Known about the structure:
single chain; UDP-n-acetylglucosamine1-carboxyvinyl-transferase, Chain; four-stranded mixed sheet; 26% strand; globular; binds ligand EPZ
Amino acid sequence: MxxxxxxxxxxxxxxxxxxxxxxxxxxxxAASLLTDEPLRLTNMPRLADTRFLGKLLxxxxxxxxESDGPDGQQTILHAPEITSGFAPYDLVRQMRAxxxxxxxxxxxxxxxxxxxPGGCTIGARPVDLHLQALEAxxxxxxxxxxxxYAQAPRGxxxxxxxFPIVSVGATEHAMxxxxxxxxxxxxxxxxxxxxxxxxxxxLNAMGAKVEGAGTPTITITGVARLQGATHAVxxxxxxxxxxxxxxxxxxxxxxxxxxxxGLIDALLDKLKEAGAGVEPTADGVIIRxxxxxxxxxxxxxxxxxxxxxxxxxQFMALMTTANGESRIRETIFENRFMHAPELMRxxxxxxxxxxxxxxxxxxxxxxxxVMATDLRAxxxxxxxxxxxxxxxxxxxxxxxxxxxxxxxxxxxxxxxQVRRLKGDGEAEL
Length: 429
Ligand code: EPZ
């Protein structure tokens, strides 16, 4: 399997264009199941996860065509009819968001059989809230042998859905199912992440009636059918935040473009507090650090607009060489510190107790061989490698390829010494 090698020490100077958001794109792709007309998604990232979901959707009857359109990378998804309502374990296990095909399948064709996703390295991540939402909408849910059987032969019915905790995936899933339900659905305690508003915009372009996404209450008035549409995927706020942290870590000056800095205010505030230069521009942000050492700051992850859990690993990498001690609290996922022991292999001084990591900044990191454990953890190791003395090699980078488009190219264009080592066939389990 491929690895990434980073030779530390180079500053970053240049421009990095931010891609379309992975976590939005994969939900928008699922929306194609709701109509027999083509859905054209532009600003599409080309990632392992989007390819992967494309494969699953193809099995369900969606024609998926990737191309370079008049406005850049696009994917056209067209499901004249649903040819199968079955999403097997093999496909759902590899990418949890595949589970979100369940709601649209039931909404469009009255039934589906979708595998439960199973465990995950960052936490248990159950899907009980997804199932509660579908049941509230009138679907009959049965669980057998690891599969969810959902049926609503006479269609879904609008309902009041109150989530006990904020869940991005369950809110999106409820929205995807309710757009074709008969009557009005109100989702209370909805997630407010920007990907929700993006999904709302796309569904409304398809003829749905959704209001309130981006606030804790979303109202959906069901319609009988949806039509085709063209929709541009929002910029990837996590990719933007990752390169902002990389620039603050390596030093230099990086301009991030095609981005919306307002989506990562919580991170940008922390970068400023740590001493990095942050200058918003019309289509992104400039991050700079010239020589001086950053100061340690504390962070606590929270639902949007709080500090994103998907930026926690990267921020921990940044704090490994800052002056002083930083406390990092993870409140969204119970096991999301797997990067800590790998950062310690590079010389970081970190202790983890429960949901809190204490990072005592060291003068410098030393290159080493490290292993990626999940998507955001893997990029935190690359960020640390940018300043580690000598060479850092990150293995299991299939995690990285799920969510970062052309990472070596983007960092390389700013002067980073990052290269991909092609796999030698050795088994990595
Ligand atoms: C989405 O996951 C993102 N994934 C995650 O990004 C992100 O970390 C997370 O939201 C939080 O922002 C995608 O969009 C594909 P949740 P999701 O449901 O929807 C619990 C990445 O690296 N919960 O908001 O799965 C759950 O266990 C990924 O790109 C239940 O208890 O997250 C967690 O503790 C990683 N029951 C909390 O809610 C449920 O039915 C929030 O999870 C659903 C969730």
